[in-house]
Design a protein that fits this description.
Layout lengths: L3 H7 L18 H18 L4 E4 L2 H8 L14 E5 L5 E4 L3 H8 L8 E3 L14 H15 L7 E3 L4 H9 L4 E3 L1 H8 L4 H24 L6 H15 L3 E9 L20 E10 L2 E2 L2 E7 L4 H20 L6 H5 L13 H4 L4 E4 L6 E5 L16 E9 L6 E11 L2 E4 L9 E3 L3
Parallel strand pairs: 1-5, 3-4, 5-6, 10-16
Antiparallel strand pairs: 1-2, 2-3, 7-8, 8-9, 8-10, 11-12, 11-13, 13-14, 14-15
Helix pairs in contact: 1-8, 2-7, 5-6, 8-9
């Protein structure tokens, strides 16, 4: 499943559709499940942990191939345990556990259970829910023969953490094991990431047609949400819409600001298709562009292309980060303030996976780029007019023959919408 040839074969282009048909090879969801579960098992074996206990819905989906809705993302109402040599056990929100027994045959019925959750502390400690839930988890660990080994946790609420400690479980960081597993994508994951990006290609076409004087930032946000949900998006996580004087410094949000002629505007569309996410900026000038805007865009594009040209298996992230300007070069006081502007980050079921590429962390702690990684590169350049700025982002698949860009809406030159 992890072989070079398979990644080369499936990374070449997004499939026109992602659902199974009898006339083309497309995403095989059972193959996807087997790959992901195998990756976690291998990462667990390489660690000192006996099991991972996951509350992050991305990790739950990666291990169990289940999802019940974006509303669960921050509720900590679902969790799963994967112990060495054992099958995953999933505790889900109420009747969702019953639903899984009916419709998720890859999970043994006895391993789909109703959760014991405090609703992030809304059910007080005196109810004893945490203790009952931890007792079931400890039973699973004992059955797997790993109760005396450390357990890795990704995120957790305080009552459950304390209950684990009272039960004598040694708790360690499980996030690193999960990131180890998730950093190299399978051919099926790459197809889903490509399809998610293709949907944003289409959304940007509608943005380019709609972006004219009098339109507000929030109007574009609404348009993108409508477009993507109509296309079948699972979750439009966020749309940043930034225009005019709001471009400097980058606020990472949107407002009700009305866009005027000659202004620059940039957008970041973050959504998921079958769980797999995009982070996809594009930058426009409205009606016409100025020399300062064009110069800023040219520099941002040069930084982007220099970074892309560097990408291949075996390159380390510090080599990419050193190609980009310092914080002072873009008018900021420190790399902490500039973090996320000249930036790279993995994409998968989460918006930020490995590798994380920036001058803040990569220079002293580089990571090797591997074939099958998928990540976004982002550049930002303020214009000399003091109010405009260029912002570009491309999503990259790392192949044996070099980088493959899967974000295809035009971005080599500054795009002027509805020109006069």
């Amino acid at each position: 499943m992890e072989g070079t040839q398979e990644v080369r074969t499936y990374a070449t282009a997004p499939a026109p559709g992602a659902m199974a048909v009898d006339f083309e090879e497309r995403v095989d969801f059972r193959r996807l499940h087997g790959y992901r579960l195998g990756r976690v098992r291998a990462a667990l074996e390489r660690s000192e942990l006996g099991a991972v206990l996951c509350f992050d819905v991305n990790n739950i989906r990666y291990i169990t191939s289940t999802a019940i809705g974006e509303w669960t993302r921050d509720k900590l109402t679902r969790y799963t345990v994967l112990a060495r040599g054992a099958e995953p056990v999933l505790w889900d929100f109420g009747s969702a556990a019953v639903h899984h027994r009916l419709h998720c045959p890859w999970i043994a019925p006895e391993n789909s259970r109703a959760a014991h959750t405090t609703m992030r502390g809304a059910v007080g400690p005196e109810a004893g829910i945490s203790e009952r839930g931890i007792a079931e988890i400890v039973d699973v660990l004992r059955e797997a023969g790993v109760a005396d080994m450390p357990v890795g946790i990704d995120i957790i609420d305080a009552p459950l953490m304390f209950a684990l400690q009272r039960a004598g479980i040694e708790v360690r960081d499980g996030q690193q094991v999960m990131h180890d597993a998730r950093q190299v994508k399978s051919p099926d994951e790459i197809m889903l990431l490509s399809r998610a990006a293709a949907m944003v290609d289409g959304a940007y076409q509608r943005v380019a047609e709609a972006l004219k004087p009098g339109v507000r930032e929030n109007d574009i946000v609404a348009l993108v949400n409508e477009t993507l949900y109509t296309m079948g998006s699972d979750d439009v996580e966020s749309v940043n819409a930034v225009s005019g004087e709001r471009c400097v410094p980058h606020p990472h949000n949107f407002s009700d600001r009305m866009i005027r002629p000659g202004e620059q505007a940039f957008f970041d569309i973050m959504h998921a298709f079958n769980g797999y996410r995009t982070c996809y900026y594009r930058c426009f000038s409205v009606g016409y562009s100025t020399p300062a805007q064009r110069d800023a865009y040219k520099r941002a594009r040069e930084w982007m292309d220099t970074g892309i040209d560097m990408i291949k298996p075996g390159v380390t992230t510090d080599q990419i980060a050193r190609l980009w300007p310092t914080a002072q070069d873009i008018g900021l006081a420190s790399e902490q303030e500039a973090f996320g502007l000249e930036f790279g980050h993995g994409l998968g079921l989460a918006l930020h996976e490995r590798p994380i590429i920036s001058r803040l962390n990569s220079l002293d702690h580089p990571m090797e780029i591997q074939e099958g990684m998928v990540f976004a590169l982002e550049t930002y350049c303020p214009a000399t007019d003091g109010r405009s700025a260029a912002r570009i982002e491309e999503e990259i698949v790392v192949t044996s023959s070099g980088p493959q860009v899967i974000t295809l809406f035009p971005a080599q030159e500054l795009f002027v919408t509805n020109p006069y």
